[in-house]
Amino acid sequence: MQIQVVEVGPRDGLQNEKELLSTSDKIRLIEMLAEAGLQRVEASSFVNPRWIPQLADAGEVCKSLPRDSRVTYSALVPNLKGLERARECGLTEVAVFMSASETHNLKNINKSMAETFPILREVAREALALGMRVRGYVSTVFGCPYEGHVPVENSRRVTEELVSMGVYEISIGDTIGVATPLQVHEVFATLVKDVTTERLAGHFHDTRGTGLANVTAALDEGIRVFDSSIGGLGGCPYAPGASGNISTEDLVYMLHGMGYETRIDLEKLTEAGAYIQKLLGRVLPSKVLQASLAQKQEQPKQT
Description:
It contains twelve helices and eight strands. By secondary structure, the protein is an alpha/beta fold. Helix 11 packs across helix 12. The protein has helices at 9-13, 23-35, 58-63, 80-88, 102-109, 113-129, 152-164, 181-191, 211-220, 248-257, 266-280, 287-298, and strands spanning 4-7, 40-45, 72-76, 93-99, 133-139, 169-174, 200-204, 225-228. The chain starts with a strand and ends in a 5-residue tail after the last helix. Keywords: Lyase, Metal-binding. This is Hydroxymethylglutaryl-CoA lyase. InterPro entries: Aldolase_TIM, HMGL, PYR_CT.
């Protein structure tokens, strides 16, 4: 069975890194991800650079992406201005985002949930008119750093709104990594009553070590698309204490071991992980990456 992996490292991963990478380094990372077989890559974000300075070069990055008909590149856009910048770069897909909790939405985009809907609707309408596809993110579905528990009805409302806008896929996010498999079962079992499984994706963080367990729970509920980040990069600037997304290497290793197909070359994937780890100068959370690097170090040199 085929599972789609959406690589969000170049955007969701790098946006929370203190180290500012050069544009050429980002492009090379994306090239390596494409070479590893990833067919969906979120390249950057057209959010105001004052909010996310790590992605201030979004335009340069997106204009220089390796053109490969097998790979779909996307970028996050908060408004019509961001959409226009994405279109100018030749992107065919954009992503819109909002939170399932009122306080996080205010902290994240400085607007209430009610104020956000018309903006997203305008962006989606214009993008669709331009022939672009629109993906949606719903943050803090499983818990909010400010409000704690988030009622599933909040996520149902946001999901239904996004579907009505013409969003083709909605990524359900555990922004601060508090979800457990039981909660994942309950949330997705509720959401699939309103939206088909084909239109839902899982976006898990590994803050408390339950990221991959949550993937397996979502798989049981029929979810077949998952976001992940190379090396386990990431977090959320507006979610204090949140660690990275689940690692792409760890996710692919687990999926392959469970008999799922991803069309991703794990060896090339770990090379991409090693590349970004070296650039950042710190050990990344990916367990498969660290095991791979340790194994290579232990191999005797050929004479």
